[in-house]
């Protein structure tokens, strides 16, 4: 029995993907960079010699840290070695196509000189507009910039977690205007912005503001044609986030994949999506000690391949130190990912879900609009034979190693599958790519 849709005034305004050129470009990015930088970077995940057992950028919420002490950290923020051009060049070398940058995290400190609060970079010894430096430097390198913006603002007197009294609603109305003003300001100051990445939208106060979130999204999009906004901004009038009461995505892409990757294509429900990932287990802002397992470059490359193979983008987070420099592990990851991308990025950029049955050696990606499938190989079988099983509507014409262009022999099996033979005696020490030229079966 087909369920009748629930009538909604502030639900999704579109079913299916956005099909315009800006969104097509977004879809083709493959790899992105996230940067979390702010006052929390000064504390480095510790206070008075004690380490905080949470994500470093949340340290203000730790009861050991008095808010009054945290809130004056702006007086110390003076990143002596910060060089936006060097950041952008590192990102370029790494092969990222877009950056998401924290203009304001939950602590409310703004990295641009906002005229709507004094709690900004202008009140710090550094004074200069960091958002502008970053937007300009990355844009110059041809990397698209998205602005991260936390709705939740621990520093603003009118922020509310819930709206329980009339006074709460009055204060929160002021807060909504403040938010709208700040966002307008960001888009006017940095017109190169390709999209906004919202966060801190999970509290009841915001969930009860469905009509406002809807009008805000429409208003922001009217300011910048083509602006991309994911599913974290809005709530429908029933308080549903990401998807509305009818299960339809609200936003241009699904923003629920944080530190987790879908297992199968069915998990993404036909939506665009990206996955944002920390290199340590958790923690986005700089911490002196990284928590848990640190992902290796190969793990990060594998996650990139996995995301692209399921039609998503992969975004690696960096948390610079308060002085503006990156930790050595991040520098090494960026460099090594870049070296790999230099050879293999054909299998990442502008690629999509291939629709072929996954095999144990790794991941398939398919070039959008072309008869080309890539095998990104992470596990080499001792036999040297990689099994492939094209979808019924394709045959493989040729298999070639992407690096060095060596053609590989294939052996047909009798159930529509084939073995691709790796060259005898060649040892692979890094993940590698095989290009399959394919032909549609008439
Ligand atoms: O609470 C934040 C967290 O600090 C970080 O910014 C991540 C990035 O996706 N977002 C929130 C948790 O979802």
Walkthrough of the structure:
- By secondary structure, the chain is α/β, with parallel strands linked by helices.
- It has 2 domains: 21-350, Glycosidases (TIM Barrel, Alpha-Beta Barrel); 354-440, Immunoglobulin-like.
- It has 10 helices and 19 strands.
- The protein has helices at residues 21-28, 40-43, 67-71, 84-94, 130-140, 166-189, 204-207, 210-223, 297-309, 328-344, and strands at 31-35, 46-47, 50-51, 98-104, 144-150, 195-199, 228-229, 254-258, 273-277, 313-318, 351-352, 362-367, 372-377, 385-388, 394-401, 407-408, 410-412, 418-421, 432-440.
- Strands 7-6-5-4-1-10-9-8 form an 8-stranded parallel beta sheet, sandwiched between helices.
- Strand 2 (46-47) and strand 3 (50-51) form a beta hairpin.
- Helix 4 runs parallel beside helix 5 (130-140), helix 6 (166-189) runs parallel beside helix 8 (210-223) and helix 9 packs across helix 10 (328-344).
- It is globular, with a radius of gyration of 23 Å.
- Bound molecules: ligand FHN.
- Residues 36, 55, 57-58, 199, 258, 276, 284 line the site of ligand FHN.
- Ligand FHN binds at residues 36, 55, 57-58, 199, 258, 276, 284.
